[in-house]
Structure formats: structure tokens, C-alpha cells
Write a structure and sequence with these properties.
The complex is a heterodimer.
Chain A: E1 6-20, E2 28-43, E3 47-51, H1 58-65, E4 73-78, E5 81-82, H2 88-97, E6 98-101, H3 115-125, H4 132-145, H5 162-174, E7 180-184, H6 192-209, E8 212-216, H7 220-226, E9 229-234, E10 237-243, H8 244-249, H9 254-261, H10 268-273, E11 309-311, E12 314-315, E13 322-323, E14 332-334
Parallel strand pairs in A: 3-8, 3-9, 6-7, 7-8
Antiparallel strand pairs in A: 1-2, 1-4, 4-5, 9-10, 10-13, 11-14, 12-13
Chain B: H1 13-18, H2 31-40, H3 42-59, H4 61-64, H5 96-132, H6 134-149, H7 152-163, H8 167-194, H9 197-204, H10 209-245, H11 257-265, H12 273-300, H13 302-310
Helix pairs in contact in B: 3-5, 3-12, 5-6, 5-8, 5-10, 5-12, 6-8, 7-8, 8-10, 9-10, 10-11, 10-12, 11-12
Classes of the chains: A alpha/beta, B mainly alpha.
Chain lengths: 346, 313
């Protein structure tokens, strides 16, 4: 996969959180498989939308791509280098080139630090624009870039509205001139009117700065609006990925179909005739993932091979569209029933 | 990205978003605000003022004291309070007012040194234990538990028995006793702050652990530690008095409030003023530190405030 166009790439990425028993010894009694074998390529300059229900591992995946969470298996490649085994210095260099915008702008800014201090932190950490004047100019430039008046730099976060705070958070993420930005539910906790403003700001910035964006959201409409491609996650695995138009119009995986059918249509008569696929039951616990296809317990089309073969992503539908579903031919790794102890290596 | 821009609402973004913010949504106490709020709390303000006066008295003891602390005038011994000796004289004819004034320096110095030691060591331990967790937490906090399990006075006596009496060693002994208290308060506070998104956000831009600890975790974990400092100062002054009372702290003839109290005990039915004035000095100082601590708690920690209101305080 030495594709020049790919900036960030995950191969068999796993993040398992151990479940420990109480007591002094803290034996590991199981694992929450938050991210469980994700293959994903993010191309230079694109916006990849990542959707899925809450708890499906979207945020953990975003964190693992930036190595804010240490993966327990698989690899992440950023611009050709494997980031899973980076030392401290190389990791800091990665932090400059890849940033994150967080969900709750009320929690993501240190209440005791002014906007100037917050935005200049990446500059200080990476020794950029040292010198009082240069740094001040850069901060003013960043604040203007995100649509804030540089005169507010010496104010504290509590003096700002949610949308303004999120702009400060974006300015901080952009300070190191990153190539890659993970927006983790970046608009979810904003008022709807402000969501549109921040969304448009992100689009503008991406075009202007040539950013690559991973846009994580549970809001399918927002994702369809901003994304070039969409990846759908279910229970720690990417189950469908493809061009936004194709995934939006002709989803190949039953889960994606159900997800899309839940989006309201802003048209009264169309909305009335909209067919909804209502899934049975709840998402299984990521500590007890079903064998084979992990969606089979809720899939309306589940059939014979589903419990026995773990489906792999295979090209289906439009060019560039991949889905992990046996309905398009049984492809994947057979489940080793008796030997659960065998590590899930390649 | 693809697609047309979303229709923005009619409100101009420059007015609502980029403009100068007018109202605060949440307010968090900041240094200047803290002082203003504290000044509005009459009890805490009075306590702070009295403590300031006592501290000034301790600093300028030599100039303020009417006579030397160890000036013996046998003909004037056991004089009741009068114009010449407002607090009376003791069994050696020493002016008690002078000894109380000079004793402030001794008592407060021991108190401050002890709390400073406990604060620095305890906060550092709590910070590391809370931030790193895992075995660091286990090892450090079990050690603190062991220290905590000893009765405070016994531990202080043990330290003084090993190192010998004297005000420096008294401060060290009291300091060691209070290390686990600060470690626990700091750890509990750090555990909460560590999980804050802004700490993760700082990490995401490449901040080192040292930077996270000093710039983000410690400042945000500070309020309960500040309150603990104020309350501990009261206990440290009291502990110094107790140890001196037992003969392990300040050694005669140096004046210390606890020592004076101990010496005055023998004359309590004959000359009440010997024990009364140093006792009042201890009482007033401890009370003021406690009141200031309560005031600081109210101002710095809104959660604690609701808790206390709930318990009908």
C-alpha cells in the first residue's frame, strides 16, 4: 500500500482496553475491543467522514491514528512512517503535523489560560516563531483565520460562546501548521445555527490550507455534506467505505442502509413515505463481540456463513466503494471456533 | 470538501461570533476575583486581617516588644496585668506581652516551615501518584498510608527523639506528619483534572508531561490544596504548642506560645495571666487560619459550597 496519495493509513488496527478484576493483583479478565481490526486509508487533501453509533469506536480510532491512544495491535502509517513505535522526539514531530479538534469546546480549553496562552502552546512546544513579536503576530493571524478578533486574545475561555470557543480550539489545532486534522464530533455540542458556521469554517480552512480531514460524527447529514468519502463503523470495525455520493445513495452494507434510512428528509411528503429499516436489539457489548460478521445479530439478512466467516472489505457497487458483507460473496477469514486462544494475527 | 456551503442563519457571524463577547456563560474564580470574593465574606476578611496583623507582629517583634523576652526582673515577678505590663509578668518577672509578641515569630515560623515542607513534598507525591496512576500510585500512596497510620504526636515525638529538640526539628517533625494529608488532597484533585479534555488537548499538540503537570494539572488542581494549606497552618501552630508543651519543641528560655502555656500551667490558680495570654494567642491564630480556610473553600470550590449547604452548615 505504498500509495503516494495516502497520508494516513491503518492496517489491522486494534485498540483493546483490558478489563481488570478488582483487588491487589488486578488480573485481566477480558478486553473491550473498542477498535478491532480497522483497515482505512485517508488520502491527502480529502475529507473522510467517519460515522457510526455512539460506542462503536469512532473516537478511539481517531485517537489511535494520532497515537493519543496506544494501539494494542496493527499499524498506523502517517506520510510513509509507522507511528506505532515512535520515540518521544518523533512523536512530538507527529503532534505538530497532526492535530485534533475536540467535541466539547467548554471542556477542551483550560479555564485558567487565556486564548493567547492556549493558542501559543503548540508554538512554544515546537519552538515555532520564537520571539515575542513574531509569536504575537502568528497568534493574531491564527485568530483571524478562524474568524475571531485578535483583540480578544487576552480573554479567558469563560468569556466566549460555544462557537467562539470551538474557533479557539481550531486555531490551537492549526497553530503547528498540520497536514492532518481529526475533528472528533467537533460540532456535536454546538447550537444548530453555530454548527453550520463552524462546518463552513472547517471547509474554508481545508481548501485554503490543503488540510486532510477526518471528520468523526454521528450526524450523517453533516458528514454527507462535508465529506469526499465516508467510512461507516460498527462495533470497532469499518464495515463500509466509499465515495460520499455512492455510500449515501447506494449503501451496500445492511447496517449502512439502516443508518441512512434513519435520516429524516426535509420534505413533508417524501418524509411521510420514507422507508425506515428499524434494527432489532442493541449494539452488542464490545467486550463480547459476536463471531463472524459482528453485525449478524441485528442484520435482517443474516444467513448461513455469517457466524462462521469474518467478512473482509471487498469492492462492491461504485468504483472505490468497499463493504464487508457476505451478501456480495463470502470473502474473509473463517472463524477458528475451537481455538479461541490463537492470537488474531495475520 | 464537496457541496455548496450550508445556508448560514440570518444573524451576521461577525456580530454573534467574532465580536467582543459581552456575557460570561460560566465563571471560574481567578486570582483577582478570588480576592474580591474573599473580601466580601466578612468572616474570612476579618480573619485575614487579624492574621496579617499577627504576621506583621512576628516580623517586627524586636521593635514592637516593650522589653526583651528574657529580661528578668525578680522584684516585678507575677505582677497582674497593669499599665506598665499590660499582660502581666511571669514568675521570673519577664514581661508577658513582650514574650507573646516574640513568641509569635517562633510559633509562626515553625508553623510555616512545617506546612511548607508538607506542601512541597506532599503535593509532589500526590501529583505524581494522581497523574501517573498504576504502580507509581500504588507505591507512593501505600507509603503515605503507612505514614498516616502512626498517631501524629507519636510520629513527631519519634522524629524529635532521633533528631533532638529545637524549632527547626519541630518544624520538620510536624511537616512529616502532614505530608500524607497533602498527598491525599493533591492526588484526589489531580485525578479529576487529569481526565479533563483540555489536558488531552494539550497532549495532542505535543506538550510534554512536565508541561502538562506544571501548566495545566497543577493550576487547576490547586484550590483544594490552598484550602488545605490554610487549615494545616492552624494545626501546625497547635502542634508546635503541643510539642513545646511536652518539652520537645522550642526550648526555654526562648518564648513560644506552647512553651509559655506549659510554664504558666503551674501558676494557673495563682496567676491566671501566665497561661491565659499565650493561650489566647494560639486560639486567635488557629481560629483565624480555620476561618480563612473555610472562606477560601467557599470562594475557590463551588462544589464544596453546595456540599456544605446541603449538610446544613
Amino acid at each position: 500500500m505504498a500509495d503516494d496519495d495516502v497520508l494516513v493509513s491503518a492496517r489491522g488496527l486494534e485498540v483493546h482496553f483490558p478489563i481488570r478484576s478488582g483487588g491487589m493483583l488486578r488480573r485481566t479478565t477480558g478486553a473491550v475491543r473498542a477498535v478491532d481490526g480497522v483497515d482505512l486509508d485517508i488520502r491527502r487533501g480529502e475529507t473522510l467522514g467517519l460515522v457510526g453509533e455512539s460506542g462503536c469506536g469512532k473516537s478511539t480510532l481517531g485517537n489511535a491514528l494520532l497515537r493519543l491512544v496506544v494501539p494494542t495491535g496493527g499499524s498506523v502509517t502517517f506520510d510513509g512512517t509507522d507511528v506505532t513505535g515512535l520515540d518521544r522526539r518523533a512523536l512530538r514531530a507527529l503532534r505538530r503535523r497532526a492535530g485534533m479538534v475536540f467535541q466539547d469546546p467548554f471542556a477542551s480549553l483550560d479555564p485558567r489560560r487565556t486564548v493567547r496562552q492556549t493558542v501559543s502552546e503548540p508554538l512554544e512546544v515546537h519552538g515555532l516563531r520564537s520571539g515575542r513579536r513574531e509569536r504575537g503576530e502568528r497568534i493574531a493571524e491564527l485568530l483571524e483565520l478562524v474568524g475571531l478578533d485578535p483583540a480578544v486574545a487576552d480573554r479567558y475561555p469563560h468569556e466566549f460562546s460555544g462557537g467562539q470557543r470551538q474557533r479557539v480550539g481550531i486555531a490551537r489545532a492549526l497553530a503547528g501548521e498540520p497536514d492532518f486534522l481529526v475533528c472528533d464530533e467537533a460540532i456535536a455540542s454546538l447550537d444548530v445555527s453555530v454548527q453550520a458556521q463552524v462546518l463552513n469554517l472547517l471547509r474554508r480552512l481545508q481548501r485554503r490550507l490543503g488540510l486532510t480531514l477526518l471528520f468523526i460524527s454521528h450526524d450523517l447529514s453533516a458528514v454527507r455534506h462535508v465529506s469526499d468519502r465516508i467510512a461507516v463503523m460498527y462495533l470497532g470495525r469499518v464495515v463500509e467505505v466509499g465515495p460520499a455520493a455512492a455510500v449515501g445513495a447506494d449503501p451496500q452494507m445492511p447496517y449502512t442502509q439502516a443508518l441512512l434510512s434513519a435520516v429524516p428528509v426535509p420534505h413533508p411528503s417524501l418524509e411521510r413515505t420514507r422507508q425506515r429499516i428499524v434494527l432489532r436489539g442493541d449494539v452488542p457489548s464490545p467486550a463480547a463481540v459476536p463471531s463472524g460478521c459482528r453485525f449478524r445479530t441485528r442484520c435482517p439478512y443474516a444467513f448461513e456463513p455469517c457466524p462462521d466467516v469474518d467478512p473482509a472489505l471487498q469492492p462492491v457497487g461504485a468504483p472505490g466503494q468497499l463493504a464487508a458483507c457476505h451478501l456480495h460473496g463470502v470473502v474473509g477469514r473463517p472463524v477458528r471456533r475451537a481455538e479461541e486462544a490463537v492470537p488474531a494475527a495475520e | 470538501m464537496t457541496g455548496a456551503p450550508l445556508p448560514e442563519p440570518a444573524v451576521s457571524p461577525t456580530a454573534t461570533e467574532a465580536g467582543v463577547p459581552s456575557t460570561a456563560r460560566t465563571s471560574r474564580p481567578r486570582w483577582r476575583e478570588t480576592l474580591v470574593l474573599l473580601a466580601r465574606n466578612p468572616t474570612a476578611a476579618v480573619a485575614a486581617t487579624v492574621l496579617l496583623l499577627i504576621a506583621l507582629m512576628a516580623v517586627f517583634d524586636e521593635t514592637l516588644a516593650p522589653s526583651g523576652p528574657n529580661e528578668i526582673a525578680v522584684e516585678d515577678r507575677l505582677q497582674p496585668p497593669s499599665l506598665e505590663h499590660p499582660f502581666g509578668t511571669d514568675d521570673l518577672g519577664r514581661d508577658i506581652l513582650s514574650r507573646v509578641v516574640l513568641g509569635a515569630a517562633v510559633s509562626l515560623r515553625v508553623g510555616f516551615l512545617a506546612v511548607a515542607f508538607a506542601l512541597v513534598v506532599g503535593a509532589l507525591i500526590g501529583l505524581l501518584a494522581g497523574f501517573y496512576g498504576c504502580w507509581v500510585d500504588d507505591v507512593l500512596m501505600r507509603f503515605m498510608d503507612i505514614l498516616f497510620a502512626f498517631p501524629a504526636v507519636l510520629l513527631a515525638i519519634a522524629v524529635l527523639a532521633v533528631r533532638g529538640p529545637g524549632s527547626g526539628n519541630t518544624a520538620l517533625a510536624i511537616g512529616i506528619v502532614y505530608v500524607p494529608v497533602f498527598a491525599r488532597v493533591t492526588r484526589a484533585s489531580v485525578l479529576g483534572v487529569r481526565e479533563e479534555v483540555y489536558v488531552r488537548a494539550s497532549r495532542s499538540v505535543g506538550a510534554s508531561d512536565w508541561r502538562l503537570l506544571t501548566r495545566h494539572v497543577l493550576p487547576n488542581a490547586a484550590p483544594p490544596i490552598i484550602v488545605q494549606t490554610s487549615v494545616s497552618l492552624a494545626f501546625a501552630v497547635l502542634a508546635e504548642a503541643a510539642l513545646s508543651f511536652l518539652g520537645l519543641g522550642t526550648q526555654p528560655p526562648n518564648p513560644s506560645w506552647g512553651l509559655m502555656l506549659a510554664e504558666g500551667r503551674g501558676f494557673i490558680d495563682l496567676a491566671w495571666w501566665l497561661a491565659f495570654f499565650p493561650g489566647m494567642a494560639i486560639f486567635l491564630t488557629v481560629l483565624c487560619f480555620n476561618l480563612l480556610g473555610d472562606g477560601l473553600r467557599d470562594v475557590l470550590d463551588p462544589r464544596q459550597r453546595t456540599l456544605m449547604a446541603g449538610s446544613g452548615r
